[in-house]
Write a structure and sequence with these properties.
Distance between the termini: 40 Å
Oligomer: single chain
Strand order of the largest sheet: 1-2
Number of domains: 1
Length: 233
């Protein structure tokens, strides 16, 4: 398997930062009340991951080993500042909605973890692609959890799309059912914990099913070999 395929599989599924590593859960659970909130934070995190991984890979041969972690944190903080100022300028309403969780991307262990574990040991093109895949995996979980909570809590999808995409996106909002009283369990943090648990359980069930499907052909081959050996004897 090529390195790009391996990185894609690791970031999106096998080593997903949210589902497997269980990193960055604080912002994931706090702001995933709607699809757009999750998408906005996910894209911001992805941009920081790509930028920090690329920069760390570029300077990895010049950074002394003793101070590598502080340097990595400074690099991450620089990209978070760029993303924060960009959102402040172009998506101000969404920036206000996400609030403190934009600057808190600096403390996301998934970002410093990838900088230390992968970007500091690999070439730039692989490091940048690793950041992209890890970011997309994190964003996918944010969007999925946000969609679940938004549907159960408000009966809608893509509420506030105009905050991220502009005024034209207001028409993207879909109302699945009308409700006078939102389902508070889905909207509040306990609902986020329950939703996250369901997503992780679903992933584990799919992994088990795929593993069992892969085992069956191997078991059948072993049975056939045993039969052939028995007949020869």
């Amino acid at each position: 398997m090529s390195e790009y395929k391996q990185l894609s599989l690791q970031g999106l599924w096998k080593n997903n930062p949210a589902l497997v590593q269980l990193l960055g859960l604080c912002p994931l659970l706090a702001v995933s009340g709607t699809v757009i909130n999750g998408l906005g934070l996910g894209l911001a995190t992805t941009l920081v991951l790509i930028g920090s991984n690329t920069t760390v890979s570029l300077v990895r041969n010049w950074v002394p080993n003793e101070i590598r972690i502080p340097i990595f944190v400074m690099v991450i903080a620089a990209f978070v500042t760029v993303v924060q100022l960009t959102m402040n300028a172009y998506t101000y309403s969404l920036y206000l909605t996400l609030g403190i969780f934009i600057p808190l991307i600096v403390t996301n262990c998934a970002i410093i973890g990838r900088a230390e574990a992968y970007a500091s040991k690999n070439p730039v093109h692989f490091a940048a692609f690793d950041g992209l895949m890890m970011g997309l995996g994190f964003t996918a979980v944010l969007v999925l959890l946000g969609g679940m909570r938004e549907i159960l809590g408000y009966g809608t999808l893509f509420t506030g799309a105009d905050l991220l995409l502009g005024d034209w996106a207001a028409s993207l909002e879909v109302t699945l059912f009308e409700t006078e009283n939102p389902f508070l369990l889905a909207i509040l943090p306990p609902g986020a914990f329950l939703g996250m648990g369901l997503i992780i359980a679903l992933k584990n069930a799919l992994n088990d099913r795929v593993e069992n499907m892969l085992k069956k052909p191997e078991e059948e081959k072993q049975v056939m070999r045993a039969r052939v050996t028995g007949n020869i004897n």
